[in-house]
What we know:
Layout: E1 2-6, H1 15-19, H2 23-27, E2 32-36, E3 40-43, E4 52-53, E5 59-67, E6 73-80, E7 98-106, E8 108-110, E9 113-114, E10 121-126, E11 133-141, E12 154-165
Parallel strand pairs: 1-12
Antiparallel strand pairs: 1-3, 2-5, 4-11, 5-11, 6-10, 6-12, 7-9, 7-11, 8-10
Amino acid sequence: MVRMAATALKLCLLVVAVLALGSLAAAAPTPTVNVTVPAFVSFAVTNVKVSTTGSPNPFTVSFTNAKDFKKLAFRISVKAVAGSFTPPAGPSIPASKVSWSIVSAQNGTGYNGTLSSTAYTIVYQSVLEPSSGSVRLAWSLAAPGASGLRAGNHTLSLTWRLEAVVP
């Protein structure tokens, strides 16, 4: 089984993004939002020569109680902490073998993507001045190949970036 752990975020303010807005941030209250992200997605790989869909499927990231998003949108991005999964032994699986497709998005737009350890990839961007929203995605692990991979838990941590942005 391949397991990808994600940092669960409940309440987040991205001060850096707000400060980047310059005088707009100084004149307006800091946006706040409650965000729910599942703790992990797992891939039960039974054949290393085919891709595997992650569980839970769909994987839902949602937000509620968004406040003070005057003329701003809410953006969710993700990045792998490392370039590859940590294996129980032997070779590792590259993080870039993980991708997602959007099942649905509410109060915004979801974006299909591939996991990277060098840059954040946008998963979702809300409409202007949102109060709530969500994105449901289906994770996929491309065929990891049979080159000496060992059975067991392979883990990879993610970092989620949550921003108030000017669209």
